[in-house]
Amino acid sequence: MIFNNHYIHSARSAAGFTLVEAVFAITLIGIGVAGSLTALTKANSIASMSRNSTGAQTVAQNEIDRFLAYQPFNPQKMNPTADCDGVVRIQVPKDYPSICAGKAPTYDLTVGTHVVNPVAIYKEPATGVIVSGTMTTVIQDVSPTYAPTGAVVPVYRATVTVDYTYLNRTYKTTMSVLRVSDI
Fold first, then answer.
1. Which of 23, 120, 144, 168 is the most exposed place for a label (fewest CB within 10 A)?
2. How far apart, in whole angstroms, are the C-alpha atoms of residue 62 and residue 56?
C-alpha cells in the first residue's frame, strides 16, 4: 500500500490538540471549579446561619419551658412564709435564696424585664469559637377582668427575645407564651 505524503502529514496534525483548544478546555474547567467553590462556600455560610438560628431558638424555647414549668405559680395568692429577706410575696417563682446569698437569681418569673448577657448560642467544636448573644425576657400581667362577675383570672405573658451578631449582622429570635394560675 502506498501512502501519499500529504495524507500522512494531515493525519499527524489531526491526532493532537492545538494550544488554543487546550487553553480553552483548561479555562472551562477553571470556570467550573470556581463556580463549584462559590456554591460550596455559600452553602456553608447558609448552614452556619441556620445552625446559629437553631441555637437561638433553642435558648428561647428553654426559657419559655422554664416559665411554664416553675411552680407554684399563683399570682393571686401570697406565700405562707416570708422569703429570706423577710418579705412575704405573691406565689410567683423567683430565686430569692440566691439573691439573699448575694448571687444573681437563676430564674425570675416576676413581672418586668429580665436580661441575661451573655448567653451562648453555639460553640464550634473544632475551633472553640462561641457565638453568644443577649436574652431578654419580658413578663407582663395581661389578666382580663370578666365583666359579669368582676373576677380577675391571673394571666401572665412571657416574651423571650434572643439577639446575637454573626459575621457583622444582627439576628433576632422572639417567642411568646401565656400562662395562667396553677389553681
1. 168
2. 10
pLDDT in tens, 25-34: 999 999 999 9
Q: Tell me how far apart the alpha carbons of residues 106 and 111 are, in angstroms, rounded to a whole number.
A: 16
Distance separating the N- and C-terminal Cα atoms of the chain: 109
Q: How far is CA 102 from the centre of its chain?
A: 31
This prediction's pTM: 0.74
In order, the DSSP letters of 3-29 are --HHHHHHHHHHSS--HHHHHHHHHHH
Please tell me the least confidently modeled range out of 63-72, 77-86, 111-120, 170-179.
77-86
Distance CA 68, CA 3 (A): 95
What the block records as the C-alpha cell of 124 is: 464550634
Give the dihedral sign, CA 83/87/89/92.
negative
Q: Which residues pair with residue 179 across a beta bridge?
A: 156
Q: What is the phi/psi pair of residue 143, to 5°?
A: -65, 125
